[in-house]
Amino acid sequence: TTLTEQVIKGLLKFWPKTCSQKEVMFLGEIEEILDVIEPAQFVKIQEPLFKQIAKCVSSPHFQVAERALYFWNNEYIMSLIEENNQVIMPIMFPALYRISKEHWNQTIVALVYNVLKTFMEMNSRLFDDLTASYKADRQKEKKRERERDDLWRKMQDLSLKNAAKEGISLDMIQMNNVAE
After folding, report:
1. What is the pLDDT of residues 26-55, one digit of tens each?
2. Beta carbons of 72 and 80 less than 8 angstroms apart
3. How far is C-alpha 33 from the chain's CA centre?
4. Cα separations (Å) of 3 from 63, 71, 147, 153?
5. Largest Cα–Cα distance in the chain?
6. Which end of the chain has the least Cβ crowding within 10 Å, N or C?
7. Residues 6 or more apart from 29 whose CB is under 8 A from it?
8. What is residue 93's three-state secondary structure?
9. Cα 44 from Cα 41, distance rounded (Å)
10. What are the residue ranges in the chain where pLDDT is below 70?
């Protein structure tokens, strides 16, 4: 058997969290390993690996995001991704979609669009399902935010009414809110 699975899991376990240059270096090492990995070994590490790659793609540091996105320029890695797109696309899609709308660096946005286009060509049905699911999740999230904001407004109104009923000056309450 090969050591690729243990080596990749070791790299993932000790992935740098605060040093972008080390992250770029780790991504380079991962790519070197993926260039020689057997497809059967790839299947064993694809989930934890692509969860980390999704984090790297989401990095505000453009070199980390760029290096992670360059995996899609490697033909052998692309063939592995294509063979396993049912597993990899759902892991990568939310990060890619969010970055396509929010990343500050236009080069990263362009690379993300290329990856999304590749995914769409690879498996258009899954791509459409993931898009619909992502948008539905965002709508639910926005609805929860609105409900939470409404609840806070109601609580604030209620506290102001109770304060008025108790004869507490509204100026005092507002001063306390500013002090906090």
Report:
1. 999 999 999 999 999 999 999 999 999 999
2. no
3. 23
4. 28, 21, 51, 58
5. 79
6. C
7. 11
8. helix
9. 5
10. 1, 169-180
User: Angle at the Cα of 31 (from 26 to 34), degrees rounded to 5?
Assistant: 125
| Cα(135)–Cα(137) distance, integer angstroms | 5
Rounded Cα gap, residues 41 and 23, in angstroms: 23
29: its two tokens: 């090492």
- Pair of tokens at residue 96: 């890619």
The pTM assigned to this predicted structure is 0.81
Report how far residue 55's alpha carbon sits from residue 26's, in angstroms, rounded to the nearest whole number: 13
**What tokens does 63 get?**
């070199």
Measured CA to CA, the distance from residue 68 to residue 78 in angstroms comes to 13
The alpha-helical segments, DSSP class H, found in the chain are 4-13, 20-34, 39-57, 62-69, 75-83, 85-102, 106-122, 124-166, 170-179
Determine the distance from the C-alpha atom of residue 5 to the mean position of all C-alpha atoms in its chain, rounded to a whole number: 24
Residue 59 CA to residue 167 CA, distance in Å, equals 52
| CB neighbourhood size of 39 (10 A) | 11
DSSP letter at 180?
Answer: -
* Cβ contact 73:33 at 8 Å: no
Instruction: Determine the Cα–Cα distance for residues 162 and 106; give it in Å rounded to an integer.
Output: 52
Half-sphere exposure of 98 (CA within 13 A, CB side): 14
